[in-house]
Amino acid sequence: MTLYLKCVVMRIKVLIPLGIFCLLTLSLSGCIGGQTKPLGLSGVTSSDGILYLGSMDGKIMAVNSSVPSRAEWTFAYAMPSTGICGSSSVPAIIYGIPAVADNMICIGIYGGKVLMVNSLARSQNLVFPQLKNGEWEYPRTGDVLKPIVGSPVLTNATVYVCSSDGRVYALDMSYGDEKWRSDPLDDKLWTTSVVDGDVIYVSTFDGHIYTLSTEDGSLLPWVFEAEVGFVSSPVLYKNTVFVGSFDHNLYAVKIGGDKPLWKFSGSNWFWAAPVVGDDVVYAGCLDGKLYAVNAETGGELWEFDTRAFVERDRIVSSPILVDDLIVVACDSGEIYTLDANNGKLVDKVSIDASIQGAICVQGGIVYVRAQDNCLYAVDISQGKIDWKFLLAIE
Fold first, then answer.
1. Domain 42-225 has what CATH class?
2. What is the pLDDT of residue 85?
């Protein structure tokens, strides 16, 4: 079997059990009340006390992080659709995390659009896009890219986004004009890139880590090639790229190297991107374990097994560091707070709903958008849920 076919088989094996991208479901679901039922795994991000996320029913939302009675604003972007039920429009499907810069929020949607929305314009429910407020969509009305699964990156007045056509796109942050598009790097890119200075780092399903120039998207000399494809987005720390692979390994690759600095083996895929702090890599695995690994040597420091509490659990979203604690959310809905130094359990909270999107922390409160289309605020110091907010109330 060729390497490419092996990667395809691995992709199928991981996607179907997880139900993460649900692409087959989308294509076969038909019409529900004249529309295809929207899906998505959008995580949560925060800025100045406001939480931004994509809802399960296809809205981009802003919610106050204090006890919310209603959303600050919601924005439903509809995509045209033609299917067995005729022509119609369907809500956006959002997998990535919104990127925020001041009062501007950028999101890529599975329908193949990159949207830049303005908080003031959305709170007034003005017609989109309000060009005078810096709002735009790319491509322009009527055109679409291949599906966008990863999150946009905003830096240096530019939006960088990966598309399922295998390319990286650079867009002007103010107007949405295309600055450049890279050559295809793979048959599809479902990850989020890392931008560091004038270099973009991209991991691919066919086992490459590419470096691109932020100036024009051209390939830079250093390319790393593994024997098996990468499944997670890359993380950059101290001149090293950390990335999870289909071969059950977490890779550490020194920039410029042609061999891994080390590989750390789990018993399933490292689907979510790891988090790194104080020379320790914290990586959640589909085997239900959170591993703490020395960033320099790859030696295991400790592991925490969530399956001691919930049989056959999985870690799909990236953990987060909060001072000397690390918080990990599981597919089962369990949220564990651990001592980052030794992996000992500090507290556990259950929201009784699957967690597959990214979580965030603000002021000691962890915010979770679960697959029941609710937003939760979890006080990790008290080990309790502060509030639950249904995202479909408007």
1. mainly beta
2. 55
